[in-house]
Design goal:
The structure is a homotrimer. Chain A is mainly β. Chain A is 11% helix and 31% strand. In chain A, a hairpin with a 4-residue loop joins strand 24 and strand 25. Chains A and B meet through loops of A and loops of B.
Chain lengths: 206, 206, 206
């Protein structure tokens, strides 16, 4: 059973799994599928139309997995026609974080307060996008990255897995040993994910 | 006819034109005039009081033109007494963007996600203020400017028309050929707008 | 008497003093105590749970003093168990500003638009945290500080009282004479507050 606050607005085409909490003033809309055990705190906008001049008036698809935490004033935009915005399991979006159209946010990613992930970005598993960071369209954030507080990531940055990035514009600070140790990542995992990242970067035309 | 979501709150002194969409949890208030064909997605606050210690409890005026797109969590503040906040036709404000009291946002301007335009700023036509940029009070952003993602524009910057700005603090990167070409701006247009910009800068005491 | 908009949601454990204004779509919840004469403009989330992986499902305590201004889309998080989030008298939070769990925001502090104060931060009296600034967890912002627009304050910065900080990462620009003069701060006040700041920095393990 889902717990839905009486002030929440949920569109007709939204499919909710089980055991979700949808708090006050949350707006879930469009062709949106939500898994189980998610918590939408308050004032969330999920599945709204893509921010793209050709798509102000078209609904697209959004899929959200299980176990996510979506805090106050967060937003997740639907994809453009034939696209898909995908937020995998156990993703945390802190207050004010934003995921734009056609993004993929993989398992276990944290988007801190006011982190902004622009259109078509792919954030690979276990990454942490810090408070107020901004990630340019079409970027691929490698697995287990740490994007520092206030870090501005332009199109040309190459965010290979397991690194820490800071500054405006982003520069590599160091290997993200904190995450690699905590998540028990060995060098074979890193090699595998770096290969996957390389392919994604190629697919994104970067 | 306007389409107004039942959860929207619209004040008694608000005048709405025709064919506007006002989505869930939008709050339109104060001495606010809205034209036609605008779309307020959700959780917008428009016409609220100026953020100024002398004006917490006074309503001011706001005028919005036609064809605007105002996405989730955007806000536009009314002017101080005898002032005017003006948002012209075809302005796009992406999720979380903010226009403070007594601003002028000219035709065709885009304010990207979380762009913050502080009090008394004048953004000239066709400019693009990037994701998370912050523009200091009383600035004048020249026509066809591109203010880059995360760019912080202090009071002393001189943003003449047709340029691209990046960094914290803002520095000029290059001529914004992308916009000038796309919008078919020739050198006479640029000279004219630069003259208008020079006058506005003078009026703003910069 | 308090003025509470019919769309506001106020939890059972919230205690409101007198003469507060709670505007549309405000959500006040948790073990929250609010003094007198505060204004919550719209879309505020106050007293919601701490953003901490161990505390998604636990309510904590929040105390707000008198005479505060809390604008659109602001948020204040409750403390973790046994902790306290404290916002003292005459605090101003402009649109989109955020105070995380277990913070102390002292009297007369202004948090400008989209300023983000992360967990366990202590902002000492009379400080001004500028538009879009980000303050790292456990920081202590000295009294009468000016944190500039877009300034990113990492953990290692030492923000002694009465200074102005700018940039990403933060660097000291100058003595904040504007505030010291305006607030009539003499050198004995500064010495006293610097001693208090030194003690707080030590308590915070910085």
């Amino acid at each position: 059973m889902n717990t839905i606050h009486p002030t929440a607005v949920i569109g007709d085409d939204v499919e909710l799994g089980d055991n979700n909490y949808v708090g006050p003033y949350c707006y879930l809309t469009g062709y949106l599928t939500v898994g189980d055990n998610n918590r939408f705190e308050s004032h969330c906008a999920v599945g709204t139309r893509p921010e793209h001049t050709q798509h102000w008036h078209k609904d697209g698809r959004t899929i959200i997995g299980d176990g996510g935490i979506f805090r106050e004033h967060t937003s997740i935009h639907a994809a453009m026609t034939d696209g898909l915005t995908r937020v995998d399991n156990d993703v945390i979006m802190l207050r004010g974080a934003h995921v734009a159209h056609d993004c993929v946010i993989e398992e276990g990613v944290t988007l801190s307060c006011d982190a902004t992930i622009l259109g078509h970005v792919h954030v690979m598993k276990g990454s942490n996008c810090g408070t107020g960071c901004k990630i340019h369209q079409y970027q691929v954030v490698g697995s287990w990255s740490m994007i520092g507080m206030g870090c501005i990531v332009p199109k040309k940055s190459k965010l290979e897995p397991g690194q820490t990035w800071v500054g405006n514009p982003a520069r590599r600070l160091k290997t993200n040993m904190y995450a690699l140790d905590k998540l028990n990542v060995d060098e074979y995992d890193l090699i595998e994910e770096t290969a996957r990242w390389t392919q994604l970067v190629k697919n994104h035309g970067l």
